[in-house]
Write a structure and sequence with these properties.
Elements lengths: L2 H18 L4 H14 L5 E4 L13 H7 L2 E6 L5 H12 L11 E5 L1 H17 L28 H4 L1 H27 L2 H14 L5 H14 L2 H13 L4 H11 L1 H12 L7 H9 L5 H4 L8 H14 L4 H5 L8 H13 L6 H8 L4 H13 L6 H7 L6 H14 L2 H12 L12 H13 L3 H13 L2 H18 L1
Antiparallel strand pairs: 1-2, 2-3
Length: about 475
């Protein structure tokens, strides 16, 4: 995935977690770290798109941008995590003002900007004409009595508005619980799903002292048969997967058990990726996943290694490292790729070992993993094996990985390959197809540094290599214009 797609996915996960699962600090930290890593090297711009041209899932970044009337986000290269977190927290709420900083510029949509201007003009027009308290109309809201009676001068300090909000919220919660229980008793699973989803969305607004008991009560209310029914709904209808995901991740371990039981039955083609995504958002499912590594069936180990990569806990590296030499090729390559997804773990040494595996597919998988681990921090490992690799397909994988990394170190190595012509009396150097592969990798790396390296190759190379670099530069210039 390119950095923009990674940022949209991980930053959207962060907003969804803050909105639907605010207590899940571990998952929030992982999503924030991945979001910051995606913008570490280059600026990004995320647009909400045409409003209501399609109906996005509730938990996506696009839905929150549209809901908060934000037209686009401009994120500077190297934006700090605390700036990203401040914007994510504001997007996760319905009324909190969204901050705009030098690192994260928030551009409101036309409707929001117009509404802001109208509110400003109305405020200025009312200035000096505000009515006194005794001139105001009586409110239709009920009168407060006793210790909670209405007090004119200190309504905010006494919390009267908050008390009214909590009262209304409890009434809404009771209504949703009634719908949920009736739907569970009547086995009307879709109605039960949306009632549970509504309660999940209410959770962040529950007063802090009551939030833990609120969550415990909701989790106990949803039985295992309902979780299985929700999974059936998600398998049949991809449109409904957004609410199902939010409810399953909220339930936590019980939902993870239901999903893992389904994964044990086979490869579950068609919904396997969806199950991986759901479990990847439930870090507490880690103890349930590791036993699959020692399962009797090969598909159980494949599921386990993929899930360890999605969950991303550092302890997963120790579980995956022995699988680099597994007898099943699919388990072996899946374990190597999973190591690249565990950014907080000590994956460097296992990936170095995988690069020296006798199996070509394992070496190719190691190149792919190095390209994504901590935004290509291990590019030096690929540079070190370019001259010693003799398998053509694996060599292509190394060069393509360096192109995806696009760092100064990676671009310098690709320039060295492109400019080092192998001659009859010179043992060092690269063949024409290798030099052309390096130029192609630079062309696929859409970064200013890669383009500058291509310009250098077009000046210093000769023959078909120079021609290929010029063509890629020309094509890139036309595309940019």
């Amino acid at each position: 995935m390119d950095p923009k797609s990674i940022f949209i996915k991980r930053f959207g996960d962060l907003v969804a977690l803050l909105r639907f699962d605010p207590g899940n600090d571990a998952a929030q930290d992982l999503a924030l770290t991945a979001s910051a890593a995606a913008v570490a090297g280059e600026p990004l711009e995320v647009e909400a798109g045409a409003e209501w041209s399609s109906v996005p899932a509730e938990s996506t970044l696009k839905s929150r941008l549209l809901a908060r009337h934000v037209d686009r986000l401009r994120i500077a290269a190297g934006a700090e995590p605390h700036d990203l977190l401040a914007v994510a927290r504001a997007l996760s709420h319905d009324a909190t003002p969204i901050p705009s900083t030098p690192a994260v510029e928030v551009q409101p949509g036309l409707a929001a900007a117009t509404r802001l201007l109208m509110n400003t003009l109305a405020s200025e027009s009312r200035r000096g004409e505000r009515r006194r308290w005794d001139e105001r109309r009586g409110s239709g809201r009920m009168r407060w009595t006793g210790a909670e009676r209405r007090k004119v001068t200190d309504r905010r300090t006494t919390g009267e508005r908050r008390l009214q909000f909590i009262s209304d919220q409890r009434a809404t919660t009771a209504q949703h619980y009634g719908t949920l229980r009736r739907s569970l008793d009547g086995h009307t699973w879709e109605a039960a799903l949306y009632a549970a989803f509504a309660l999940v969305r209410i959770t962040p607004r529950v007063p802090s002292p009551e939030r833990r008991s609120f969550a415990t009560r909701l989790r106990k209310t949803i039985p295992r048969r309902a979780l299985d029914a929700f999974l059936d709904l998600a398998e049949r209808d991809p449109v409904i997967r957004g609410p199902v995901t939010a409810v399953l991740r909220y339930v936590g371990v019980a939902a993870a058990e239901a999903i893992i039981d389904r994964l044990r039955q086979g490869d579950v083609i068609g919904v396997r990726g969806y199950y991986y995504d759901v479990l990847g958002g439930i870090p507490e499912s880690y103890p349930l996943v590791t036993p699959l590594l020692r399962g009797r069936e090969a598909h159980e180990a494949r599921h386990a290694v993929a899930l360890l990569g999605r969950i991303g806990r550092a302890e997963g590296v120790a579980e995956l490292e022995p699988l680099i030499g597994h007898r099943d090729e699919r388990v072996r390559t899946a374990a190597v790729r999973a190591l690249g997804e565990i950014h907080q773990g000590p994956s460097a040494e296992p990936l170095r070992e995988a690069l020296h595996s006798p199996d070509p597919r394992t070496r190719s998988a190691a190149a792919d993993a190095i390209a994504v681990w901590r935004a290509g921090a291990l590019a030096i490992l690929l540079v070190g094996v370019l001259e010693s690799e003799h398998d053509r397909d694996v060599w292509h994988a190394y060069v393509a990985a360096l192109g995806r990394i696009g760092s100064a170190e990676a671009c310098s190595a690709l320039a060295t390959v492109a400019l080092s012509r192998k001659k009859l009396l010179r043992r060092r150097g690269y063949t024409t197809w290798q030099r052309l592969a390096a130029v192609t990798a630079l062309g696929h790396s859409d970064t200013p540094l890669a383009r500058a390296t291509l310009e250098r190759v077009s000046r210093e190379a000769d023959g078909v290599v120079r021609y290929a670099a010029e063509r890629l530069l020309h094509a890139g210039g036309q595309h940019a214009g």
